[in-house]
Amino acid sequence: MNVTAILGSRNPEGQTARATNALLDAMTAKGWTADKVFLPELKIERCRQCNPNGWGLCRSDGRCVIEDDFGGVTERIRAADLAVFATPVYFSDLSESLRAYLDRLRRIGRHEAGKAGIEGKRAVGICVAGGGGGGAPACAVSLEKVLNTCGFNLLDMAPVRRQNLETKRQVLQITGEWLAEQGGA
Fold first, then answer.
1. Phi, psi for residue 141 in degrees, rounded to 5
2. Angstrom distance (rounded) from CA 90 to CA 171
């Protein structure tokens, strides 16, 4: 079984990565393989709203006209048994890199071809807030909304703040063990 984690964070040692690693490490200890994608390291453009109505091939063909890393990331998610979306919290919302990726993913999902391998895919969300940490719940609501719009089967959402990171890492470890034992639930 394979889990693919999409991180909207640039820092592989940061709080978002540490929270995500707690989940992934528990799953790999149970025999799963884990794949991590750090979106800020890739070229993911914002949606161009190609035609005057704000749509393009996303709506008619279920694919995006922009030639960047979007398609490759999407294929990695499609190939996985479980997808994890993890983001640092900025202004009580998703990171810019995760927002750009998910905005395009939900657009291709308006067409049957774009839904293939995404609709019903099991997913987990992790939102990690630094600073005062108060934006984590609002970010979790935003991430839940967009993942549901994309058609994911959202199994869990973990709002985390730097003040409770170590406790939430323990919770994510237990969640990862449970997911692995249930075959991704």
1. -65, -45
2. 23
Number of domains in the chain: 1
Q: Which two tokens stand for residue 146?
A: 């967009």
By the 8 A CB rule, do 37 and 73 touch?
A: yes
Question: Which single residue is written with the structure tokens 């900025």?
Answer: 90
Residues 109-114 have a mean pLDDT of: 91
| Sheet hosting strand 82-88, strand order edge to edge | 33-38, 2-7, 82-88, 122-129, 153-161
Share of the chain above pLDDT 70, in %: 99
pLDDT of residue 184: 62
Mean pLDDT, residues 114-142:
95
> Above pLDDT 90, what percent of the chain?
93
| H/E run at residue 174 | helix 165-181
First to last CA, the chain: 12
Beta bridge partners of 7: 38, 86
Domain containing residue 111? 2-181
CATH number at residue 173: 3.40.50.360
Q: Which tokens go with 107?
A: 């657009």
Side chain identity at residue 175, one-letter code: T
Average pLDDT over residues 92-115: 95
Q: Is there a contact between 78 and 116 (Cβ–Cβ < 8 Å)?
A: yes
